Amino acid sequence: MASPAEEIRRQLEESARVKQGFSNELIGRIAQFAEKSAAALRAGGKIVFFGNGGSAADALHLAAELVVRLRTERPGLAALALTTNPSVLTAAGNDYGFERIFSRQIESLVAKQDILVALSTSGNSPNVIRGVEAGRARGAYLVALTGETGGQLASRVDLLLNVPSNDAQRIQESHITIGHIACSLIEQLAHR
Hints:
Layout: H1 4-20, H2 24-42, E1 47-51, H3 54-67, E2 79-81, H4 86-96, H5 103-109, E3 115-119, H6 126-138, E4 141-146, E5 159-162, H7 168-190
Parallel strand pairs: 1-2, 1-3, 3-4, 4-5
């Protein structure tokens, strides 16, 4: 059995390896996400993030980076996470089922000029898929942050940001890295 220090080093190296394995194509898609998001914000749209578990926390985190600030002092940017209102989540879950906790919110909050960002390590979460389908019906631009295969979300979104890993921990670490990079670029581009 490895010592705790050896295990820490192994995990740090694995995390770095996944991020260093981002293809030029994925990097280009991250840039496209930032550019499309900044354009949507300039046009009066907003960025809406959602996901389950750790991805729900990432959705909250990334929305906060845009609303408050990440690197520069600037006006707030319109972003929100669909996991912030327990009353809405529990009412939708009770009245419509857990599979509709996001789609019901998207039906009422998302418009054509918006960017809808689904976070799912597997790409197969039924409530996230239903949320994307609701976003498609509303005419939003659909983005998914997933693991390597993209799961069922891969064929349902306009832009797939799929991390080259099948390990949920490494995928979530990479999602927040992608999110920080994209938010930094969005800050620079949104007020041009």
